[in-house]
Amino acid sequence: MTDSPAAVEQADVVVVGARCAGSATAATLARAGRRVVVLDSARFPSDTLSTHLLWPAAVAELSRLGALDAVSELGAPALTHAFAAGSGYTIATPFPEVGGIDYTLCVRRTGLDHALVRTATDAGAEVRQRCRVTELVWDGARCIGVHYTGPEERTVELRAALVVGADGRRSTVARLAGVETPYEADPSGRDCYFAYWRDNSTEWRSTAAQWRVGADLGTAFPCDDGLLLCLVQPPAAPGRLRPGDAERRYAAALDRIPPLRERLRGCERVGRVRSATGIVSYFRRSSGPGWALPGDSGHFKDPVTAQGIRDALHYGRLLAEEVAPVLDDPVRLDHTVAAWEQRRVRECREIYHWTNRLARGTAMSPLEVELYRAATTDPDLAAVTTGIFSRTRRPAELYTPARMARLTAGALWRHRRAPGPVFRDIAHEAASTAREFRTSRTTLRGAPPVTGISTV
């Protein structure tokens, strides 16, 4: 327990966490005329461990939020083309348009998050930095506020109709609400290592590129300040990282992806290798009486598909739009946050399964190779593939019965002398599809009931 609060304050909404989901929620609520107080333990500008590719749908969210001009001023180039190569085949497409945006951005989190915090402040939200939440305040089963300590180390009680936990995968709000353990989780088959390089290429500065060689996956995304984000996702290694492991594994993965090494030719690395291991994609219970969890605090997908920032901005904004008119009515508020959570589950479960497939950490299967081969000469198939990442197309559009029949026939023809791997791949994909269907119809029907709650 913390000391008794030295002060009690009142707001309409408390947002814990000022980064993507938190700023999107706060700015939207403030523009709706609500008093919003945002608490964050960091002092901005502040970095955070994160990959940071923004597909057109995420850039469109920045535009809706009124933050795009500030983010564009950071100088990241507009990435107008997608490039994906594997097993000797290449898929190259322009990006689809979303909300008038037809390009991708890669913006380092220090500048991106600071621009979002300024956007929330300009909208009328009060952002309090270097403030750490220590407790939730409860009235029975309803959350009615938080206790937090600021730079002066005194405890403040801040009461509100809604507490929004936008505080990431290690969410304090999720832990204090008793929902830290996910109700659906899928460990990744990949680790993630990335570093920045001073980019020496002019030819590739407008292209977001990915290569798959064997079981390794590597990407190169031009970003702000003339830099390049180079990320590799090799198969997950057992055990915890020891000193020097990240550097060694990063260099080894680059050596196993010769075309990525060639992309880096003439580039100079800037700073250390950063790592994320033990990655788990999940859904947590994300709403209850008086609280909600947008962003990674409630739902997280492996970085292999780079969906996190878009979803944080999108569902933070939607939460704010939906609760703003009903904050003064607890019954309607509870119904609204529950419906918001169920909407996110419904809309994200398909891309969640798709992401988990790409995160297996295995070499390309015969059907994947056939997909790449077909997409090199089929513009519509290539557009569907790029559109899935941009959330303008669904994975189900890629694997229609007719298309799967063509891919299977092509793979069998190319492996006609030894078709065993193709049949094993077909059986594996059928089992995966059945498992995903069961998960979507059971665990991911919507939010499960709360099984436990912390009170003070």
Automatic annotation (TrEMBL):
Its EC number is 1.-.-.-. Residues 11-183 form the FAD-binding domain. It comes from the Bacteria. The keyword Iron does not apply. InterPro entries: FAD-bd (IPR002938), FAD/NAD-bd_sf (IPR036188), Geranylgeranyl_reductase (IPR050407). One of its GO terms (molecular function) is oxidoreductase activity. It comes from Nocardia carnea. SUPFAM superfamilies: FAD/NAD(P)-binding domain. Keywords: Oxidoreductase. It is an enzyme of class 1 (oxidoreductase). The keyword ATP-binding does not apply. Pfam families: FAD_binding_3. This is NAD(P)/FAD-dependent oxidoreductase.
